[in-house]
Structure formats: structure tokens, C-alpha cells
Design a protein that fits this description.
heterodimer; A: alpha+beta; Gyrase A, domain 2; Alpha-Beta Plaits; Elongation Factor Tu (Ef-tu), domain 3; 3 domains; 6-stranded mixed β-sheet; 6-stranded antiparallel beta barrel; globular; B: about 130 residues; alpha+beta; OB fold (Dihydrolipoamide Acetyltransferase, E2P); 9 strands
Chain lengths: ~375, ~130
């Protein structure tokens, strides 16, 4: 029996198989790796429009009178930056030693927020979207941090989540969503969301291109998938998702950061908010201590000058000392190998990556490598 | 379903071998292997003069996913490698048995060829592995 008969399936599983997808296990889910060519899928997103079934990601709704207080403690970024309904925020949740439990996007929901505000401590409710592979551990952690405070944490595993990404993605998808939401969805600023009873639309993604992420019930999700396919949006698998996010310089949990690494050495210092001194988020003390001692590492981008492909786990030699490739691969847009690497804080300019028996020259750059279809680094 | 030409010999590691009229052999990876690897983006080729023993790493093929060794199916000395793969590694995907050949070897012990599988045996091996 093929391995993919064992895992959890999204509501779109049979669509993927019908479209000729090569299915692989990803965090216990049977997911499409590609539908024939992951490089073509990559280019489709950079040049026009592609779509990803990301229903394996975990949607967690947070409601209750203490929602805001709770998220101020749970998240390293400050939920109070969500000054109006619909806004979204990228954040990590940390453990007590400042390691990353997971990264996520938190939205302040537009629907139902009035009721929540009148019910007690305004505002609310909130929606979190966390990683697939870490979903169960995340939920346990969220419940532990919640203790007996007045929050309801609801995992919405039944929902479909679709990401439509690429310069033409919003324009092609707009006619396919409900009439009453279309104009508001098209008017969304980046990292903002809007919803009605049928669909939740956010102008977010994981590719470095414009686009939407849409969350809905499974029947509506299947219909949107079919309609988008008919409208010419290219189905894309996890393979293209990984090369797109790497080009965009976006971290992957479990590779570029994990429970043992601090956001401050993972290129995520910008997502940690120390501004409000009264906000005692989990991990704050540990991060302040790290900062006081001085950071000895950082996450950088690498562009390989020699021939070869950089991979996760390969050693990096810099003038300031050794480092390691956290994510590496082939960039279909740049047609060369790029990587994210954790290196000594003082490392700069050139370094060498150990690829099997060869020491290959690479240039240290500041990610992203590619965004909005344009190459931003390298020679 | 993968293509398995009848005139070739095959290793358990999914290399194919073609015997040439001059006594040399051509080595590549099978259609099944290229399908399993996915789109190739880099090939590390052996150099002429390199002497290999059966089972040694002869070349490295890297797909978008991962790097995989290509093993020497028999002992021999490398006399040539397919330079076209340096810039167009995808030839292995589009033409695994012709344009995507990897290396030419002068066999050290031609009797080792008999240990390799014929097309029928290779097809059976693939079937038994569920491919």
C-alpha cells in the first residue's frame, strides 16, 4: 500500500489525485508535492497565478472575554498592533527559554467583533493560523498558557484553506467569491482580512507575491478550487511552495528556527515587540537576557557563486567562524542555488559552504532574494 | 509506468548500462529513477581517468528535492562524461536513456556485466517494490 494511504487527507485530496499530483507525507498529511513540474508551478506563481491547498495548516479561533490579555501573553508580537478589525500580524509564540514554539499569523476578526466587545473585555475574537506539522503541539501549548483564563480555543480542522498567489491571482479569483465581499476583498491592504459567513479572505501568503489566502467550509472550498482551476489558476504543490518561500526569504519552522532557537538569531527580531514594558509575554525575560549578553549569531541569505546546490545542514565557513545552512535549494527564478544560513554575527561578504567534498564559494546577502517577480540580490 | 529498454542491463540502484562496440560501456539512470527523483537541477560529473570500483559513487544528481549518488555498476575507468549535463541536467528527465547518459567507462572486468539484470528482471524488481 502506498504510504499516502496512511495520512490525514484534506477535503481536496481527490482533486489532487485527479489532477495527477504526486502525493507525499507532510506532517502526517497526504499533500501534493507537485502536479508534474514543480518548476513550472513556481514560474506560474511568479508570472501569473497559482493556487495551493493549505488546508493542512491549523486554524485556531480564539474567543472569550480574556482573548486580548491572553494573546498579549502568548505572542511575542503585540496583538494591540491590530488596531482595527480585519488586521493581521505575523508573530512567534515562544517557550520560557525564548525558543520558538511556532510561527503564525494572528487576525483580529471583523465578524462578531461587536458582540465580543459588548460582552466584556474588548476587542475580539481572533483567528490564528499555525503550521500543520506542529498543530497538535501548538494547541497543547496554547491551552497550557491559557490556564483557567476566560478564553475559548477552538481548532477548526474542518475548514479548507486555499492560497491563490501571483500577480494576477486576486484579479482572477475576485469573480469567484461572493458578490457582497468582492469589493472589500479587492480593497484589502497587505496583511488585512475581511469575511462574511461564507468565506474569510486575507491578503497574505508565503510566496513573495501578491495574493489571497481564503478560509471556508469544505463544500465551498471544493467549489472554489474547481472554479479557480477552470479560470486558469495553476495548481501548485509543496515543492513550489518551498522554493517560492525560500526565494522570498521567508523562514520555515523546524528548519530555520525551532524550539531551541531564538527569534533574535532567526531573522525574526522585527516580529518581537518589547515596546510595551507592561506586556509580559512568554519568553520575554529570556530574550532580554540574550539581548543584554549580545547576540552571537544571525540568519543571513547565501547565493552560491560556484556550481552545486546548498542543502539544509551543510557547514558554512566564514571569516568570523563556522555556521550552518538552515534552508537551501535551487532557485528557479535565479537559476542558481540560494540558502538561508545561521552564521556568526560578525560574518560578512564571502563564505564557503561544504557541499560533500567541495568547499564552494557563496556571497552573504540580506533576504529576500526575489519578491514581486524581481530578483533583488546577487550578481 | 516507466520505460525499460530491452537492450540494456540494469543495477539494483537503478543505473542502466549499455555495451558499446568498442568494448566500453555507457552508464545512466533509469526512467524509473528520474521519475522518482523529480526535476534535476544539477549533476556532479566524474572526470576522465577516475578509476571506480563497483558500488563507488560515480556521479551525483540533484533534483529540486535532494541529492542522490549514482553508483558505478561495475569496476572500470571513466573515459568520458556527458558535458551537456552541466548546463542542461534536465536532459536526464527528458531522455534518460539517450541524451541524458552520464558517463563512459572502460570496464575493468567485463564478466561483471553478467551480474547486472536484464530488462525483464529489472521490471520484476520494480513490480515487487510496488513501483
Amino acid at each position: 500500500m502506498p504510504v499516502w494511504d496512511m495520512g490525514k487527507k484534506t477535503s481536496l485530496f481527490s482533486r489532487h489525485v485527479d489532477s495527477g499530483a504526486k502525493m507525499v507525507d507532510f506532517g502526517g498529511w497526504d499533500m501534493p508535492l507537485h502536479y508534474g513540474s514543480q518548476i513550472d508551478e513556481h514560474h506560474a506563481v511568479r508570472s501569473r497565478a497559482g493556487m495551493f491547498d493549505v488546508s493542512h495548516m491549523t486554524v485556531v479561533d480564539i474567543a472569550g472575554a480574556a482573548s486580548r490579555t491572553y494573546l498579549r501573553r502568548l505572542l511575542a508580537n503585540d496583538i494591540d498592533k491590530l488596531t482595527s478589525p480585519g488586521k493581521g500580524l505575523y508573530s512567534c509564540m515562544l517557550n520560557e527559554s525564548g525558543g520558538v514554539v511556532d510561527d503564525l499569523i494572528a487576525y483580529r476578526r471583523s465578524r462578531g467583533s461587536v458582540a465580543a466587545q459588548t460582552a466584556g473585555e474588548a476587542p475580539g475574537p481572533y483567528r490564528l493560523v499555525v503550521n500543520a506539522a506542529t498543530g497538535e503541539r501548538d494547541l497543547a501549548w496554547m491551552k497550557k498558557v491559557a490556564g483557567d483564563s476566560a478564553v475559548e480555543i477552538t481548532c477548526r480542522e474542518e475548514l479548507v484553506m486555499l492560497a491563490v498567489q501571483g500577480p494576477a491571482a486576486r484579479e482572477i479569483t475576485a469573480p469567484l467569491i461572493t458578490d457582497d465581499l468582492r469589493d472589500a476583498a479587492l480593497a484589502l491592504q497587505p496583511f488585512c482580512s475581511v469575511e462574511n459567513t461564507d468565506v474569510f479572505v486575507a491578503r497574505t501568503g508565503y510566496t513573495g507575491e501578491d495574493g489571497w489566502e481564503l478560509i471556508m467550509e469544505n463544500q465551498a472550498g471544493r467549489k472554489l478550487w474547481d472554479d479557480a482551476l477552470a479560470a486558469g489558476i495553476v495548481p501548485c504543490g509543496l515543492g513550489a511552495r518551498d522554493t517560492l518561500r525560500l526565494e522570498a526569504g521567508l523562514n520555515l519552522y523546524g528548519q530555520d528556527m525551532d524550539a531551541e532557537t531564538s527569534p533574535l538569531v532567526s531573522g525574526l527580531a522585527w516580529t518581537v515587540s518589547f515596546d510595551d514594558e507592561s506586556r509580559d509575554f512568554v519568553g520575554r525575560e529570556a530574550l532580554l537576557e540574550q539581548r543584554a549578553k549580545g547576540l552571537d549569531e544571525k540568519l543571513v541569505g547565501l547565493v552560491l557563486e560556484d556550481r552545486g546546490i546548498m542543502r539544509h545542514g551543510q557547514k558554512v565557513n566564514t571569516e568570523a567562524g563556522p555556521g550552518v545552512v538552515t534552508s537551501g535549494g535551487f532557485s528557479p527564478t535565479m537559476k542558481r542555488s540560494i540558502a538561508l544560513a545561521r552564521v556568526p554575527f560578525a560574518a560578512d561578504d564571502q563564505c564557503y559552504v561544504q557541499i560533500r567534498n567541495s568547499s564552494c564559494r557563496a556571497t552573504i546577502v540580506r533576504p529576500p532574494f526575489v519578491r514581486g517577480g524581481r530578483i533583488l540580490v546577487g550578481s | 509506468m516507466s520505460d525499460i529498454p530491452g537492450n540494456l542491463r540494469f543495477s539494483v540502484n537503478h543505473e542502466w548500462v549499455r555495451e558499446e562496440d568498442d568494448g566500453s560501456i555507457i552508464v545512466g539512470i533509469t526512467d524509473h529513477a528520474q521519475q522518482a527523483l523529480g526535476e534535476l537541477v544539477f549533476v556532479e560529473l566524474p572526470e576522465a581517468g577516475q578509476v571506480v570500483t563497483e558500488g563507488d559513487a560515480l556521479a551525483v544528481v540533484e533534483s529540486v528535492k535532494a541529492a542522490s549518488d549514482v553508483y558505478a555498476p561495475i569496476d572500470g575507468e571513466v573515459t568520458d562524461a556527458n558535458a551537456a549535463l552541466a548546463d542542461t541536467p534536465e536532459l536526464i528527465n527528458s531522455s534518460p536513456y539517450e541524451d541524458g547518459w552520464i558517463a563512459r567507462l572502460q570496464p575493468g572486468d567485463p564478466t561483471q556485466m553478467e551480474q547486472l539484470m536484464d530488462a525483464e528482471a529489472y521490471e520484476l524488481m520494480l513490480a515487487e517494490s510496488g513501483a
